[in-house]
Amino acid sequence: KNEEAVSFSQYPRPADTPQMNSDLPDLKDIKVMGYSVRSWDYRYTLWLGFNPKTFQVNVSDVHAGELYVLADDPTEDNNVYSDFDHSVMKNMASLPP
Amino acid sequence: RETRNVLFIIADDLRTSLGCYGDSVVKSPNIDQLASKSQVFLNAYAQQAVCAPSRTSMLTSRRPDTTRLYDFNSYWRVHSGNYTTLPQYFKDRGYFTMSVGKVFHPGIASNYTDDYPYSWSTPAYHPPSFRYEKKKVCKGEDGKLHANLLCAVDVAEQPGGTLPDLESTDKAVQLLKSRANKDDPFFLAVGFHKPHIPFRIPQEYLSLYPIEQMTLAPDPDVPKRLPPVAYNPWVDVRKRDDVQKLNISFPYGPVPEDFQLRIRQYYYAAVSYMDAQVGRLVSALDDLGLTNTTVVVFTSDHGWSLGEHGDWAKYSNFDVTTRVPLIFYVPGLTAQYDWLGESTFPFIDVLTQSEYHFKYDTVRRQLVELVDVFPTVSHMAGLRAPKPCADVSFQEELCTEGHNLAYTFQHVETG
Fold first, then answer.
1. How far, in Å, CA of B347 to CA of B94, rounded?
2. How many CB pairs under 8 A join A and B?
3. What is the ipTM, given to two decimal places?
4. What is the C-alpha to C-alpha distance for residues B386 and B371, in angstroms, rounded to an integer?
5. Residues 52..81 of A with a Cβ closer than 8 Å to B: which?
6. Do the Cβ atoms of B156 and B203 come closer than 8 Å?
7. How far apart are CA B145 and CA A47, in angstroms?
8. Of the partner residues A5, A12, A19, the one whose CB lies closest to the CB of residue B70
9. B228 with B188: CB under 8 angstroms?
10. Side-chain-facing half-sphere of B354: CA atoms under 13 Å
11. Which residues of chain B carry a pLDDT beneath 70?
């Protein structure tokens, strides 16, 4: 109970740019999975390569990232991902699920 | 331990646009009244913001990477693992379990049976009028019928003279009456179709939200630094007849401002219409003398973006699309038992009565998830919560990837 509470969500995409099936791609078309962790202070999302046949995510295949600092940006409009060094988070992403 | 009945209510695409979540525009007196006698989780999140993956995840208490359901096209029992569902868990422990409306996502995602007979004691009920939901049943300004996004209707003129959520509420009340005097406890799940698009709703609810009082989303533009992969182009909205006439460019839009205001007006009206059905349902508990013995859970499968970030859909990881209402009424715990026969949840007609003012007495601000619902409902109803899953649990039929939130009902939140 002393751990900081977080929530996780994910969303699949068929491509790096919006397509007609970006909203709801069929499993066979999924190429990227956006994994999010949300805490009280931030929402961090990595869009990673995904193999729909093996269900494996490639944590070294980072397509994009999002970082929202919620105290300053509660509506998630200012993505500051590129302003930070992400080596620590990328290492965390390589941990088993 | 004493077992309690469960009334599990799930709305479709309902974000936290409720009075009890601080929304000052919406009128949701019946849910606010339920919340005032419940524990309200202010920061609850879905695991994937689309119907079938979210519902399957919540009802099995497994994350999408364990159900391996990211679209609408497979049944978890044959696709990933024979996971026990929340209603199945109750059914296996002597409950009579019933499904009304959209609880599981219909179709192959629930084996075309809503997972009957695993999850339910009797085949699931679906409102017959839902077959018209996407048809040309909305009267346009030209007097003809269209398949519109904005579809306020005279219910009497609709096919069958009714709407799906009206039918579902009637059926649910009928089932409650049939179970009121039985010895075995019940688990009744009621899935409302609104405020999902199209906004086919009784026209009188529009009057609650005069268009001149509607405002745009605080951030109606696509954020400049949003990576393209994170954006979704809300194709389902674009397909509706009235939206097609707007000739909105693909993929980024935008929607004309006057139409944005109308979408927001209709969404809020759909919430009030759904709120009225919740009011009818929980007031029936009162009438049947069941409020002292029934846990009520109210939630949604995910949220919906009402123009924030230039988006008009779910299908993303944004807060507005993943955050959901989560409300637990537990008699004797979140509210005192009613021994005097007074009404706990009298129906509030939002069209004629003043607003209900929610008091923030029993809210929790900590982050929780929809995978927490299964163990928490089980515990609060008097069953044991399933044990936590191992890191990899494809072979485990019964376990939870969530947390039992029961401790939150008895401890003051700090920090």
1. 31
2. 141
3. 0.96
4. 12
5. 55, 63-66, 74-81
6. no
7. 42
8. A12
9. no
10. 2
11. 1, 354, 415
